[in-house]
């Protein structure tokens, strides 16, 4: 993991100097992890909207959102979480002091997303039943490692 | 597909009114597809950087980037490409007149990404060999369906 992290940091620096030479754009690692989070938000927004009755339950669409969420959650995030890239973002620098715990929390989301994908297309009650664990994994990580506002 | 698209459009509208009531934020479907594209760019940037010798080849990191790329490319994009959401983006409205062709082109990327993931961790020559097809699928879609600048 350490080897990969160091290589990934070098890659992020290289991509940064390749693509963002004007300095106005965020580090590519930051852009990538914010994009990754955006896809969480999009798919959890659909599932959560259904769970709360703000969006009509549709089994096929619930399954699409849950499968997409599980696919994103299963991705390897090594190339995103490069030490020294917290500034200007909501990521707390304590992430890098607690990387093992951070990854345990990421794994929690991976597991909860897979569980959601197992049941989201069954019926609304099943989707709602899986929502608590899923939302809990978001909160668990944000509470520790994201700025409050 | 049509049923899902209509539902997805309703979802996008609902999420939009839920989360972005001030009107300053992009439609959530637009934000999601731009995030999806950002993850393509991030992972193709790593693979392309290695192919071009701008980043040292590292088999493990190449495999991570290729697996992530393949995972994103295999996702179902139904909830992103909502008719009427081209304005203010580089997406051309002709996408919605040619949705079958657009999806064929998306499938091309899915196949090329899976092929890259098969070989990216083998050696640099194999990665370079898969890069042409992969880049070709990007170009094929952008040429038809993305504004030039």
What do we call the CATH homologous superfamily of chain A? Cytochrome c/b562
Q: H/E series of chain A, N to C?
A: HHHHH
Instruction: Specify which chain pair forms the largest interface.
Output: A-B, 40 and 40 residues
Q: Number of DSSP strands of chain A?
A: 0
Overall 3D shape of chain A: elongated
Percent in strands of chain A: under 5%
3D architecture notes:
2 copies of one chain form a homodimer. Chain A is built from 5 helices and no strands. With 149 residues, chain A is mainly alpha-helical. The longest helix of chain A has 24 residues. About 4% of the residues of chain A have low confidence. The first copy, chain A, is elongated. The first copy, chain A, has one domain: Cytochrome c/b562 (Four Helix Bundle (Hemerythrin (Met), subunit A)), CATH 1.20.120. In chain A, helix 2 runs antiparallel to helix 3, helix 2 runs antiparallel to helix 5 and helix 4 runs antiparallel to helix 5. Chains A and B meet through helix 1, helix 2 and helix 3 of A and helix 1, helix 2 and helix 3 of B.
